[in-house]
Amino acid sequence: MGGPQAYAARMTVVPSDTIATEAGAMPAHVWLPPAGHGPGIVLFQEIFGISPYVERRAADLAALGNVVVAPEFYWRLGASGVANGPDMLTEGLALVQRFDWEAGVRDGATAYGWLRERPEVTGAVGLVGFCFGGGLAFNVAAITDPALLVSYYGSALPGLLDLAPQVSAPSLHHFGQADSYIDGDAVARIRAAVDGPEVEFYTYPEADHAFDNADFVSYHPQASTIAWGMTEKFLRKHLPA
């Protein structure tokens, strides 16, 4: 599921900043809100990396009044992401198989601390993640103190549920009821593990994995629209601009 040819179509994305880590400088992309300042959000990418979809969602979050940073979590692999196209899933999975999860968690926690210190950030900092990034953000939330966590179909969550008691931030979870990678039993286990007074959990009939990504084959417009509306409401409540 990969090989050298699988990486030929990696995207070229120019980072707008870097974040110092113990292993070197991690490229990162920053979006400012119209006011130029506000609360912060660390955006955790899908398996496809810093894609046009991630960039659009980062711009959406910034338009809501947030300072957004999207780190290049594949930087240790020499990649920012994969190109949109028929091979994007194969290429994304190949990158994930080479990904050092613990190093990625450290990078996410470092990005969280870095964003908190940015002069443009005048409020709290939350975490938002999609797919691969939904699980990574959950893990980072367990070792930091974000204002909130939003996780879209976090693919690693079934293996991270022992961390659930450590995630004290208000959290919002979205899952499709027709998810090809996370079945109904796994979603039920996740719901039970994360349940709490400040947890919102929504499922969407007929929606598959990655239903929010309009560039991917499983995009579900209705589920995407509803879920994003719930996300905006959650952010306004827990991360006011």
Automatic annotation (TrEMBL):
One protein family per Pfam: DLH
Superkingdom field: Bacteria
Matching InterPro entries: AB_hydrolase_fold (IPR029058), Dienelactn_hydro (IPR002925), Dienelactone_hydrolase-like (IPR051049)
Keywords from the UniProt entry: Hydrolase
Domain Dienelactone hydrolase span(s) in chain numbering: 28-238
Signal peptide region: none
Coiled-coil positions: none
Transmembrane segments: none
GO MF annotation list: hydrolase activity
The protein, known as: Dienelactone hydrolase family protein
Protein's organism: Nostocoides vanveenii
